[in-house]
Amino acid sequence: DSVAFEEVAVNFTQEEWALLDSSQKNLYREVMQETCRNLASVEMIWYRDCVKAKKVVSVERLSAKFQILI
Q1: d(CA 4, CA 34)
Q2: Most confident segment among 36-40, 49-53, 58-62
Q3: Is the CB of residue 57 less than 8 Å from the CB of residue 51?
Q4: Disulfide check for 66: which of 27, 31, 36, 43 has CB 3.0–4.6 Å away?
Q5: Mean pLDDT across the chain, nearest whole number?
């Protein structure tokens, strides 16, 4: 089964974010960064396998540009 980034991401409102202490904010950042790294890794493996199999891959399908705005 596939999983979308939106399914594993946690989004806080500004009010919710303000209620977190610094250790909770740091944990959130660490978890989200790890999630992004894992997704980027999976995508690169998929791309590599497509190249090995000589499948045509559109550059637009690559979405390893993750931003975490905190």
Answers
A1: 15
A2: 36-40
A3: yes
A4: 36
A5: 74
Residue type, 16: E
DSSP 20: S
Residue 25 token pair: 């904010």
Structural contact between residues 68 and 32, judged by C-beta atoms closer than 8 angstroms: yes
Could you tell me which of 7, 9, 69, 11 has the C-alpha nearest to residue 34?
9
pLDDT tier at 1, thresholds 50, 70, 90: low
Where residue 68 falls (left for φ over 0; alpha for ψ -120 to 50; beta otherwise) is: beta
* Domain positions in the chain: 5-53
Give pTM, 2 decimals: 0.57
